[in-house]
Amino acid sequence: MTTEILKNIARFIVLVLLQVLIIQNINLTGYMILLPYVMVILILPFETNKLIVLLASFLLGVFVDYFYDSSGLHAAACTAMGFSRHYVLKYIAPRDGYDIGVKPTVEDMGLEWFLRYAGTLILIHHFFLFYLEIFRFSEFFSTLLRVILSSIGTFSLIYIIQLLFLSNKRRV
Amino acid sequence: MKNLLAFVIKHNFIFIFFFLQAVCAWLMVHNRGFQGSRVLNSSNLVVANVYETAANTKEYFYLKQENDKLALENAILRNYMKSSYAILPLKEFKKNDTLYLEQYSFINAKVVNSSVNKRRNFLTLNVGSREGVAQDMAVMTSDGIVGIVTNVSANFASVMSLLHKDVRVNCQLKKDKSYGPLIWDGADYRYCLLTDIPTHSKIRHGDTVLTSELSGIFPEGIMVGTIETYERRQNESYYTAKVKLSADLKKVNHVYVIKNRLKTERDSLEKATQKQIDD
Predict the structure, then answer these.
(1) Is beta strand B138-140 parallel, antiparallel or unpaired with respect to B120-125?
(2) pTM above 0.80, yes or no
(3) For B14, which residue in chain A has the nearest alpha carbon?
(4) Nearest Cα residue to B117 out of A78, A32, A140, A88
(5) Rounded mean pLDDT of chain B?
(6) Whether the predicted pLDDT of B95 surpasses 50
(7) Collapsing DSSP states into helix, strand and coil, what is residue B8?
(8) What is the CATH number of domain B41-165+253-261?
(9) What's the pLDDT tens digit per position in B103-144?
(10) Which residue in B17, B32, B117 is closest to A30 by CB distance?
(11) Which CATH number fits domain B169-245: 2.40.10.350, 2.40.50.840, 3.40.50.300, 3.40.120.10?
């Protein structure tokens, strides 16, 4: 249990640093912005208390805000995502609930389930983020395009990171 | 009252969510008034130091390009040295220094943090009020303009880059001095839009765009970029031109902060005039 908590804290720090020092400098047109740091919230264990998820999301957002010069923006988007996580998990749960010791990752739950779960949450996060950032309706459709393209980009990157680093079973 | 309390405790998840969102909203509104009240975080010590370490590491990879560029600039500056000129013995060519008032001075600075992929992009410089940097000073590289200082701390300065949704810099065509504001549409960090160019202007692909004295921040005639395409949108009596920026804002490393010694005087005069008009 304790090692699980330490692991999650380490993941928190590594992903925030990865985001602000490396990913922030990647530029694939102004319409695709990669934000893989949200993975911290995505792969918290199923049995994590929903309040802890909510507070962790808020903290994550605040940390990223500090580096992005955007006070409150990422915090708001992350909090919305942490809030929705509880309901999304409930909505797409298997009939007999989640097994104990299983984590919400591609490896444990399969790509189709993860796409539905992570895809929804990433869309919610990016939707909040980009519309709060622009805060006007005159660029509604270009912002929508940005939300969709960025979600695709972020999801792909998270998928790749999971394949590379989170795999327990070593392939021979 | 008791029922209300019980209701709040039963639905504490939702209430805490709304509370946190309210905190975020407060943070956003509090730090995002007009420019004067903005407190940018990367001027903060911890964040700025993390970025400075990263920038120092990254700088090693660009040493060669940076050296080439500085050597080139040195060569150009050498041309302006007194020793490169023959001294003319005629008295008429002598300039009396008291005729000229130095208006602009330049402060050398290094970029410790920058971004190009947000809708509001900022740069952080390693100079601050200690070196005499103040709000609303212009920032340029040897290639072209970069942005405007919005906030300074003792050792760092935050610069609103050209790639910001609220930036408007008055620019002019070198050819016929027709001017308009330069804005960024958020699509590509290499291009900005020059708007409100009158239709009688003979604008062409490749025309040079320079800063205009009208901006009040930039000295006149600093390189901005070249016209890539231009169009006249429906129902508009103006051209909108896509400008390829001459400064590569993604690779910007060494910059100059431009200090306008006459700015306070000009601003206070303009403000007084404006007040007279308003009254």
Answers:
(1) unpaired
(2) no
(3) A83
(4) A32
(5) 82
(6) no
(7) helix
(8) 2.40.10.340
(9) 777 888 888 888 888 888 889 988 888 888 888 899 988 889
(10) B117
(11) 2.40.10.350
